[in-house]
Amino acid sequence: MTGHRPRAALLAAAVPLAAAVTAAALRAARLELYVDRYRLELTPLPRPDCPDCHGEGGWWTGGPDPDMEACGCWTDRRGLRLPFLPRPAGWDEPPF
Ligand SMILES: [Zn+2]
């Protein structure tokens, strides 16, 4: 049983370090991570140094019915979606 303590201590130290490294890598790559029991998603974010949108992700077009035009700094990059578990039947229906 004493052999498990160093391994548990090493694991307890490694998990926060891995989480911090992952968070820094996602920030540097301008990706947003979402994870739940059903899926993992990496979604591209606008680049703050973008000369077109200046990190806003797009701009409003003029006219009587303005519409938002998305910037290519995040729409041209691919995201990732990994499904884990199938959704239960009726998960997106209102409860009442
Ligand atoms: Zn942009």
Brief description of this entry?
With 96 residues, the protein is of the alpha+beta class. The chain has two helices and five strands; from the N terminus they run αββββαβ. Zinc ion is lined by residues 46-47, 50, 52-53, 71, 73.
Structural description of this entry:
- Keywords: Signal.
- Residues 1-23 form the signal peptide.
- The chain is α+β, with helices and mostly antiparallel strands and 96 residues long.
- The chain has a domain at 28-85.
- 30% of the residues lie in helices and 24% in strands.
- The chain contains 2 helices and 5 strands.
- The strands form 2 sheets. A 3-stranded antiparallel beta sheet has the order 1-2-5. It has a two-stranded antiparallel ribbon with strand order 3-4.
- The mean pLDDT is 89.
- Residues 46-47, 50, 52-53, 71, 73 line the site of zinc ion.
How many runs of DSSP E, i.e. beta strands?
5
Number of helices: 2
Give the low-pLDDT segments: none
Q: How much strand?
A: 15-25%
Q: Residue share in helices?
A: 25-40%
Q: Which structural class fits the helix and strand makeup?
A: alpha+beta
- Shape verdict: flat
Instruction: List the bound ligands.
Output: zinc ion
The main pleated sheet reads as: 3 strands, antiparallel
What's the mean pLDDT score? 89
Question: Whole-number radius of gyration?
Answer: 20 Å
How widely separated are the two ends?
A: 52 Å
Keywords: Signal
Protein traits:
96 residues; alpha+beta; 2 helices; binds zinc ion
Question: Strands, helices and their partners?
Answer:
Layout: H1 4-28, E1 31-35, E2 39-44, E3 58-61, E4 67-70, H2 72-75, E5 80-83
Antiparallel strand pairs: 1-2, 2-5, 3-4
Bound molecules: zinc ion.
